[in-house]
Write a structure and sequence with these properties.
- By secondary structure, this protein is of the alpha/beta class.
- It has 2 domains: 118 residues, 3-Layer(aba) Sandwich (Rossmann fold); 64 residues, no CATH class.
- It is 29% helix and 27% strand.
- The strands form 2 sheets. A 6-stranded mixed sheet has the order 5-6-7-3-8-9, with helices on both faces. The chain has a 3-stranded antiparallel sheet with strand order 2-1-4, with helices on one face.
- The longest helix is centred in the C-terminal third of the chain and has 14 residues.
- The chain is globular, with a radius of gyration of 17 Å.
- Bound molecules: adenosine-5'-triphosphate.
- The site of adenosine-5'-triphosphate (ATP) has 13 residues, from strand 2 and helix 1.
- Keywords: ATP-binding, Nucleotide-binding.
- This is ABC transporter ATP-binding protein.
Length: 198
């Protein structure tokens, strides 16, 4: 469980997260929504320690994180295989077999030896998703994971996320998700100007 209590983040003179208190539990899927600039990405960054709170506390045990925040930064002149192999070599938790399985699940195995610069936006997005989930993290943080995906791949990624939900905490930031059409979230958190909308 990740518990934020009265968390405020100030960057220069700007309050980007304002007195946020919220709990994220294991086995649940959360949606962060809100307008551009409302603080969704900042909250994801805070959850995985990329930024520290200015005030307030974050209570959480040691977790492993899978993160896809903003445009994933791949080495464009290298292939998907080379990129993911390099990333996997940092933690040494998985090998090529797991990487290939993960690429297959997002329909990219046929492109494994293609350079990332030749990928379409939607392919890069799926590669970013693969990178975030391949090491089977406890906490999965995804910033706009459905951007640039066609219907088929939207459903593919959504089903993958739902299939992984049981033993993870998953937080998705997406500003345009149709929650009526796809009522899949355990909790929807709306941010407005850095504050949680009640
Ligand atoms: N380095 C920085 N210094 C000051 N303010 C910043 C900095 N980075 C971001 N901000 C501000 O923080 C606020 C929250 O930004 P954030 O990226 O979290 O929004 P968001 O909800 O993810 O928006 P989007 O939907 O456009 O991705 C914005 O007002 C932004 O201008």
């Amino acid at each position: 469980m990740i518990k934020l209590i009265g968390v405020t983040k100030q960057l220069k003179n700007r309050i980007v997260l304002d007195d946020i208190s919220v709990t994220f539990e294991k086995g649940k899927l959360y949606l962060l929504r809100g307008h551009n600039g409302s603080g969704k990405t900042m909250l994801l960054r805070l959850l995985c320690d990329l930024i520290a709170p200015t005030r307030g506390t974050v209570e959480k045990p040691e977790y492993s994180y899978g993160v896809m925040i903003e445009t994933p930064n791949f080495a464009l002149h290298e292939t998907a295989r080379q990129n993911l192999k390099f990333l996997a070599s940092i933690q040494k938790k998985i090998g090529m077999k797991e990487i290939e399985k993960c690429l297959e699940e997002v329909h990219l195995l046929d492109e494994i030896d293609n350079k990332v610069k030749n990928y379409s936006l939607g392919m890069k997005q799926r590669l970013g998703f693969c990178q975030a989930v391949m090491e089977n993290p406890d906490v999965l943080l995804l910033d706009e994971p459905f951007n640039a995906l066609d219907d088929e791949h939207f459903h593919l990624i959504l089903q993958r996320i739902l299939g992984m939900k049981k033993d993870k905490t998953i937080v998705i930031a997406a500003h345009g998700f149709d929650t009526e059409k796809h009522p899949v979230f355990d909790q929807v958190i709306t941010l407005n100007n850095g504050k949680i909308h009640p």
